[in-house]
Design goal:
single chain, 155 residues, alpha+beta, Alpha-Beta Plaits, 2 domains, two-stranded antiparallel ribbon, two-stranded antiparallel sheet, 5 helices, 26% helix, globular
Length: 155
């Protein structure tokens, strides 16, 4: 993939705007349990960490799906779930090392981030800037700068 959702957890305030917008766009209701992005909260440490699909180079969810419902586009790198082919076995949920694959119990199918067709709404509505949709090289540059700042002596 040439772009990704870059997450700066230090800017996340845990407001759940990303979760609500995501579920509203995809499911028509505001429900964090139906969101393709989830915020893991550590209230005693005042930390919030948004988590979404990593679009792995070799996605375990694709390899374990017995019905072929999960596929990876070789050109774009997008990993998608065809809900019409999903048999609800939840093997993808178990296989995802990051906890990104989700399950809709009402529909009996798995779901995950689809990047909103290239315009991720979680990013659009993240008012703190914790989520950015960036080209890979820029995201890596941001990460390198953060690491460099963390090792510089404090002035």
């Amino acid at each position: 993939m040439d772009k990704l959702i870059f997450i700066d957890h230090e800017k996340c305030v845990g407001c759940a705007t990303c979760e609500m917008v995501c579920s509203l766009v995809h499911e028509g209701i505001c429900s964090p349990s139906l969101s393709r992005i989830r915020v893991v909260r550590y209230p005693t440490r005042a930390l919030n960490v948004p988590i979404t699909c990593a679009f792995c180079e070799f996605p375990p969810c694709v390899s374990v799906c017995p019905s072929g419902a999960i596929t990876k586009n070789a050109q774009s790198g997008e990993v998608t779930i065809n809900s019409l082919l999903c048999i609800g076995c939840r093997q993808c949920v178990q296989a995802c090392p990051f906890g990104h694959a989700n399950f809709n119990f009402a529909q009996g199918t798995a779901f995950k981030c689809d990047l909103c067709g290239g315009n991720p709404q979680c990013v659009e509505y993240c008012w703190t800037g914790a989520l950015q949709y960036l080209p890979l090289e820029r995201a890596l540059g941001e990460k390198r700068e953060a690491v460099a700042r963390s090792i510089l002596p404090q002035a």
